[in-house]
């Protein structure tokens, strides 16, 4: 099931946010699940977390480095630093900020990297105003990935069938970056075909899975 993930070093705080989102989602009959997590020491861990948990929206606290959740102490970054790191590989992924520090200078300097920066006080007063934004962002992201997966699938089949147009290859490589798929060389056509025969089949399955999440 597709999920909204709340990242916050304060577990009580994230639990309260989760309850508010779940209640509002139930009111609009959404099948999105809501999960929480404390910040990861290694920012690279977020990519596996997103993939393994089928996350399609992330909500970040700004002061992720305030509280320790293990013996090693707090993480070494804030939400506004994490969003820049995530954007290196996830340029179109829905990321929201939800914080009591909505006027923080560092945070607002990264405004264009968020879908929205939301005051925690405003969110608690009117969750029903903001949760539909989370839901729309999730559905748009999933639909966009359906389209990208479908296009990648079509292009891969065309190239596998013998079309070696350079524009097609460039577009395929661009989609590989967007979907974070492994690269394969194009110099040896036989090795390319072997590598992508299985890839095409898995993309067909992925397309069907994403479509089911939009229902």
The beta-strand count equals: 5
Q: Strand count, sense and closure of the main sheet?
A: 5 strands, parallel
Mean pLDDT metric: 83
Describe the strand arrangement of the main beta sheet, using strand numbers.
2-1-3-4-5
The low-pLDDT segments are: 183-193
Sum up the overall morphology in one term.
globular
Number of helices: 8
Span of the ends, CA to CA: 11 Å
**Proportion of strand residues:** 5-15%
Q: Provide the succession of SSEs.
A: EHEHEHEHEHHHH
Name the helicity range: 55-70%
Structural class: alpha/beta
Radius of gyration: 19 Å
Give an overview in words.
By secondary structure, the protein is α/β, with parallel strands linked by helices. The radius of gyration is 19 Å and the shape is globular. The termini are close together. It has helices at residues 11-27, 45-53, 79-87, 105-109, 120-125, 127-160, 166-179, 189-213, and strands at 3-7, 33-37, 55-60, 95-99, 116-119. A 5-stranded parallel sheet has the order 2-1-3-4-5. α1 (11-27) packs across α6, α6 (127-160) runs antiparallel to α7 and α6 packs antiparallel against α8 (189-213).
